[in-house]
Design brief:
alpha/beta
């Protein structure tokens, strides 16, 4: 990336949120340093309880680094990073991804062609079966394949959005791990399309154990279920609970994952790793189901009984 004076504004600002990312942040910043597109700045916000990430960031003086003494969730760190940037375009990535050399050039090219929100592709770093199984569960929809197209999700692991639109929707907001879902909905409500750019590739490095992966899927499923329940009617919540408990949704998700992997030329790898990928989806649906059941119980508790309603009406009419 270029070295700039204080009076020169880059076109692109790359924001990175980090927490306990010392195993991957060096590779991430190295990959950013190797981009063919040069008109950009990088802001890294870290809220780790130690200085490991800070020490690695010292090797990259071109990166603007901030350490938060308090724990920040990803969307909070991204919002803080964005507040320190100057570019016309904001690009969000995770601290555990490694962008390909032409990644940023491809994101900008797709934006210049469409003027829309650009979602880049997410490949798997490494070929261990465990890593691939986790990756297919999380990111099968974003495997680098096909042609640019409109999609329905905007993961902040690889996302470009115009600063004006980011500011217009109030930045990233929502729950601790699903602010990207809210951001995508907000941008679509603004009239923006979410366009997938299969040539803008980052590789995601999976460092968690299989047990940690399944726990994370369950927790995120619960968070998503609570958020989704807040959008739905009582009847819709009940229908989603039924579909999640029954094998209906799991079968549909498995079929979609199969299709995405086949389209990316990775069907063989999927067939070898489908038990872990399917277990991850099942854990997520279990978390959702618990959230939907809780939402229904809360709605039932708040609904007055017929006797109580009649008594209240009688008191009112006295």
């Amino acid at each position: 990336m270029v070295t700039r004076s204080n009076t020169t504004t880059p076109r692109v600002s790359v924001i990175v949120a980090a927490y306990e990312a010392h195993a991957t942040i060096g590779g991430c910043l190295d990959a950013l340093r190797g981009q063919t597109y040069r008109d950009f700045e990088v802001v890294l916000v870290d809220s780790s309880p130690n200085d490991d990430t800070a020490h690695i960031a010292e090797r990259f003086p071109e990166v603007r680094f901030e350490h938060s003494e308090t724990r920040l969730y990803p969307h909070e760190a991204r919002n803080r990073a964005a507040s320190h940037t100057h570019g016309e375009l904001l690009v969000s990535i995770d601290a555990d991804v490694y962008p390909h050399p032409h990644w940023l050039a491809e994101l900008v090219r797709e934006y210049d062609a469409s003027g829309q929100v650009i979602v880049g592709a997410i490949a798997c770093h490494g070929r261990r079966l465990r890593d691939l199984g986790m990756h297919f569960c999380k990111f099968a929809k974003f495997l680098p394949a096909g042609t640019p197209r409109v999609i329905d999700t905007a993961p902040t692991a690889n996302l470009l959005v115009a600063r004006a639109h980011f500011d217009q929707v109030g930045g990233m907001r929502g729950d601790r791990y699903l602010a990207d879902v809210t951001l995508g909905r907000d941008l679509e409500a603004l009239g923006r399309q979410l366009r997938f750019a299969p040539g803008a590739i980052v590789e995601h490095h999976h460092t968690e154990s299989s047990a940690a992966f399944l726990r994370e899927r369950y927790v995120r499923g619960g968070i998503y279920g609570r958020m989704r329940a807040s959008w739905l009617t009582r009847r819709s919540i009940a229908l989603h609970l039924t579909a999640s408990v029954a094998p209906v949704r799991l079968a549909r998700i498995a079929a979609l994952t199969f299709r995405y992997c086949a389209g990316a030329g990775m069907l063989g790898a999927f067939l070898l790793t489908w038990p872990l990928a399917l277990a991850g989806h099942a854990a997520s649906l279990a978390g959702e189901s618990v959230a939907y059941a809780g939402a229904l119980l809360r709605l039932r508790a708040r609904r007055p009984t017929t006797r109580n309603s009649g008594a209240a009406l009688a008191r009112t009419n006295r």
